Amino acid sequence: MDFDMQKNLTLPVLPLRGLVVFPKSLIHFDVGRKKSITAINKAMKADQLVFLTSQKDAAMNDPDIFDVYNTGVIAKVVQVLKQPENTTRIVIEGQCRATIINPVFDEKCLVAEVKPYEEETEYYTARDSALMRTVKNEFDKYLEISPKMPSDIIFKVALCKRPGELADFITANLILDYRVKQSILETFPESERLEAVLDVLVNENFVLKLEDEISQKAKMRIDENQRDYFLREQKRAIEEELGEDDSPMDDAENYADKIDKLNLDEKSADILYKECRKLSKMPYGSQEAAVIRTYLDTVFDLPWNKSSKDKIVIPKVQKALDKTHYGLDKVKKRIIEQLAVRVLSEKQKGQIICLAGPPGVGKTSIAQSIAKAIGRKSERIALGGVRDEAEIRGHRKTYIGSMPGRIINALQHAGTNNPVLILDEIDKLAADYKGDPTSALLEVLDIEQNNKFVDHYIELPFDLSNVMFITTANDISTIPAPLRDRMEIIEISSYTREEKFHIAKKHLIPKQLEECGFTSKELKFTQKAVYALIDFYTREAGVRTLERLIASVMRKCAVVKLTEGTEIFKIDEKEIERLLGHKKFIPDSLAKTDEIGIVNGLAWTSVGGEILPIEVAVMEGTGKLELTGSLGDVMQESAKAAVTCIRSHASALGIDSDFYKNKDIHIHAPEGAVPKDGPSAGITMATAIYSALTLKPVRHDVAMTGEITLRGNILPIGGLKEKSMAAFKNGITTVIIPKDNEPDLEDVDKTVFDKVKFIPVRNFSEAVAIAVNNTVRITDNQWNGIDMSAVRSASKTANIVKQ
């Protein structure tokens, strides 16, 4: 040593990144940091000694004395070489272990006072000798399974005589994490240091052995696959050369046999044969071969020649539909007509039917019942939210993960080429950048074109003319005109009160009794209870909420049965209110006496008809017209037309012709928070204005509906069935309707028709004579402003001239 081991030394410190230097090791590395280069230069100017220690965090760029380990090695700088890019390569030789005692301040580099550690030269025991032999044996095993090491390292290990020297030399040449090497460097007793190295060697040998086993297994798997592939290809080549191929028919031949059995047209069969020839020339297991197999399997799964036999017996079909659904007479009648023609002529393909109506009225379920009644399979295709055209026509088979469209997929599931396909929510289709699925349906729903429907995946024409398509929609206005033109639209209106009652008694209550575990003897609903559910707890076009309420009542009864032991339940109106709470909907309160300026109108809503009272107040003023009650634009225009009608016929009606100058008129529709619109309240507002101006009361048991013109004529309206039910439910005995709506009385519920008197009228004069008390019938001549005396005088003059 060139220094005294008994004295502390003040040396420049060189921090190392991920590197640990041991005593008696000769090593070279590059130095690039400014402080490290300064430390080297300072050492070269003195005694060439420098203190080497590792950084605790190898990623730190500018460590201080507290960021390095305290234990390191005093080393001698043997050689310094300048390198490009401001780096310096040094060759150093480790001298001995040392520990930092105190840091020394220096602005240019790290400096510290270190204490050298001198190895003990005591006598070694037999245990130490055995430990050295064990370590050397483990190192030999490491050399067998690790990358080749230089021969001089193996030679130097054999020359090591001391435990500490052996431990340092082996650790310096092992591929280990720098933290593991640092822990060994910090172990000063030689025997403990050698034991630590033994532990590291045993662990490294175990890990290396596992890595070698894993590598060998992976290599064997790869070699086995390659071996099978080459043997299979050699066998195929030999059999082809010898012409002795006695193996079963390959996939291509099997597919060719299936094509023959399909009896397709020549063009379609040629396309499939071409795919078979391509498959026969491809190597086994190729990706393209798998695509062709999937395509051919899909084609063969289609029901090209499979059809179900129709069981059409008109009386039985009628009875089956009546059993499953109450009402819906228009739909049943149309289906029966189509089936009757189908029995007489197989050439009749039928129209595509679109069932349009509010949610919950049974559009989808009646379509499924039709399929069951005629013995056909049915498949429902939900179109709500579909945006991609490929959902209908499929994807090209060249795309990854391609598949047929929903139409072909439904035919696969049905297993026949003449099922009933229910295209549900066709009005909910949407378009985006991927295409317009609505346009893709044009070919599907055209009976003149769908006999050669081509799916993008199948690429073969498939006959859809035998399929019965039934579509459903809530709002037909959102369906594009070309698609709407291809369908026969059957409007399904909302259920009336009586229809809901019968549906509940015949279908909903029996269904829920079965699902909730009751029998008809254990739980019974009274008529008033069912009507209470319909009138006071639901406001809907269909019966879904009604069914949920019935199920809720039964669930509550089930709890009572299991907790209190009650066996028999009779659900009446009071029990409904006890189980479901207070009434959610209160019926409109109508006047019980005849009043001035109040007339009962009739309105149509998506959940049924409603009574719409119209109130008119006349005050002294300057001729202002005030309209309130959330009236829409059309309804406001109807109010203005009604005022003009009264004003233009003031003399015939016996009203002051200057009322528009000295009177203010306020027209109001109660429940102002509910928006109202439409022209059908015109006659109602005109009658209310007339009553308020003449101070004549209007009959409280009369309701009316109709659009009014400036000349006082009454035009037809829609929704008469629902409006009549609202009048019946609220105790109205007489309903005034437009003359042109007289044919619509056929659709009115029989119970309503028997209880309510319907009076068709042509103009306002006829309506006001019925509804307003103390009003004399105005003749047509008086209403139209014709002076009969002038007419008679003109007639005499004409006769004189003629004579």
UniProtKB/TrEMBL annotation:
As recorded in UniProt, coiled-coil segments are none
Q: What is its EC number?
A: 3.4.21.53
Among its keywords, does the record have NAD?
no
List, alphabetically, the GO terms of the cellular component aspect. cytoplasm
Ranges where the Lon proteolytic domain occurs: 593-774
Which cellular compartments is it found in? Cytoplasm
Sequence positions that bind ATP: G357, P358, P359, G360, V361, G362, K363, T364
Q: Which reaction does it catalyse?
A: Hydrolysis of proteins in presence of ATP
What keywords is this UniProt entry annotated with? ATP-binding, Cytoplasm, Hydrolase, Nucleotide-binding, Protease, Serine protease, Stress response
> Does the record carry Cytoplasm as a key word?
yes
Residue spans crossing the bilayer: none
Q: Which PROSITE patterns match?
A: LON_N, LON_PROTEOLYTIC, LON_SER
Name of the top EC class for this enzyme: hydrolase
Active site at which residues? S680, K723
Q: What binding partners and quaternary form does the record give? A: Homohexamer. Organized in a ring with a central cavity.
Q: State the family it belongs to.
A: Belongs to the peptidase S16 family.
Q: What is this protein called?
A: Lon protease
The protein's organism comes out as: Ruminococcus bromii
Name the encoding gene, please: lon1
